[in-house]
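Morning F.,

Quick status update on the modeling queue. The single chain you submitted on Monday has been processed. Sequence for confirmation:
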Amino acid sequence: MSRSQDQKFFDLFSLVLAALVVFTFAVVALAVSISNRTIGESNKRDPQMMAATVARIAPLGRVAIAGEMPSAPDALLAAANPAPAAEPEPVAAVAAGPKTGDAVYNMACTACHTAGIAGAPKVGDAQLWAARVAQGMDVLYDHAINGYQGDAGVMPARGGISSLSDEEVINAVDYMIELSQ
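Structure tokens below.
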């Protein structure tokens, strides 16, 4: 083969390849255009699809100020989702009152006070607990509620769970002392 034949082949091959690329882009553009006109329009008219879309893109929280109109997402949700005929029944009742000492211990305290991590006195070790109780229960409660960092170790405030109330933390301390005597 000569050099001119090679050049002709390369030119023809490049032309066919370019035509295939243009054809591919044209087919994709046509498919997108058709799907937007059919699927997109039907979704805009369907209240359930509209409500689902609004719910997906809604902010995580809203601020309601007395006397102001609801925000646009609230209005769209209300328009797309009419109120149900009957009120839904509650799923479960929320337990009233503080958590018990054993519940708080199992939720927050067991990780450190079972293994003695960061100098935490192990539950059941009467000698370690006696030294702490000797300081006074008010000091022990204060360290558990507000946290403590000293030579003996580190105690995060409320066992690292800030949602615990003072009473729940005190219940957990009393429970651990009871198990350690």
